[in-house]
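Quick illustration, no need to memorize.
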Amino acid sequence: MKSKVLIPVDTARNSLTAEEYALKLNWRMPISVTLLNVVNTKRLEGHGISPSDQERIKKSMHRRAEDVLKKAAEPFSKAEVDFETRVVEGAPGLTICGLAQDENFDMVIIAQSGLSEWEEILGGSVVRTVLNKCQIPVLLVKHSPDQLENQLKLRGERGLLPG
């Protein structure tokens, strides 16, 4: 019987470490993977954005999420691991935990945030929320020094780090 595993996939691709670990885990223990991207629609509320513009932005966010999930799915397809991709809307941390519990996942595999402790405190952290709020087992995969350096480089290239 395959273990049902949920892997949150972010558009910054911080989740690569978790995805790589899941592929290795499948060699030891057969898994069925759901690659999930949560479109954070809460960021659009309360900023005076018109409903039509909000819908346009949401559609763009969904397209971006689907593109990212398509890239994340490629290694699972090549490795012949059972997987599905899914995009949902909501507050990422709580949505991940709720879906994991409601759909009886055996485990959530998530990569460390890649943020400094100070950045996590200021901006909140999806990883911290998942670790503290999920009622099912959560496997936190740490980045190796090379992976962490690569994540910081990717975030810098995409303008996700303060200048």
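Residues 3-157 form a domain with the Rossmann fold fold (CATH 3.40.50.620).
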